[in-house]
Design a protein that fits this description.
single chain, Arp2/3 complex 21 kDa subunit ARPC3, transmembrane helix, membrane, biotin transmembrane transporter activity, cell membrane, transport
Length: about 180
């Protein structure tokens, strides 16, 4: 790895960690900027380095560093929201791969971010449903999991995808892509 790659990966590890604690209340929900920074990791660092940066962040949390929104430690695997963290790693990889698959126009970057959002939803909602019903014994129907974890989150997450695409294109013009 080059020094620039190491520095930018470290920067995104820090941004994702800080993003977990930046809370934006909207109605009865609270949103964090973690999703935005994991998208940008894939867009700006590419598939491999984006996934490495987000993966190191998740590993840091699992070894006990309190970088997750609700703390950290190996027991976090039992939390219903752990699937989102796994989804963030896959999202960074997929987003980076799709963006680098051709000329990075705003439409291509937005499409890659939306595909990444779908991956996060797939991992996050699936794990949430399974963990709620079989690990923490807080039964929830699949429909309710889809409603609360997916449908109600689509608009704010779409806005974050728009922001990531805009920021990503601006950063490319500024020469900040790897």
């Amino acid at each position: 790895m080059k020094v620039r790659e190491i520095v930018l990966c470290a920067l995104f590890i820090a941004l994702v960690a800080v993003g977990a604690f930046i809370r934006i209340p909207v109605g009865t929900d609270v949103y964090t900027l973690q999703f935005l920074f994991t998208l940008l990791a894939g867009v700006l660092l590419g598939a491999r380095l984006g996934a490495v940066a987000v993966g190191v962040y998740v590993l840091m949390g699992l070894v006990g560093i309190p970088v997750f929104a609700s703390g950290g430690g190996p027991s976090y695997v039992l939390q219903p929201t752990f699937g989102y963290l796994v989804g963030f790693i896959c999202q960074a990889y997929l987003t980076g791969a799709l963006v680098r698959g051709g000329e990075p126009t705003f439409g291509r970057v937005l499409g890659a971010c939306l595909a990444g959002m779908a991956v996060v939803y797939l991992f996050g909602i699936s794990y949430f449903y399974i963990a709620s019903n079989y690990i923490v014994d807080a039964p929830i129907t699949l429909w309710l999991a889809l409603w609360y974890c997916g449908i109600l989150q689509v608009v704010p997450d779409f806005l974050l995808c728009l922001a990531a695409a805009f920021i990503g294109i601006r950063c490319r013009k500024a020469g900040l892509w790897l």
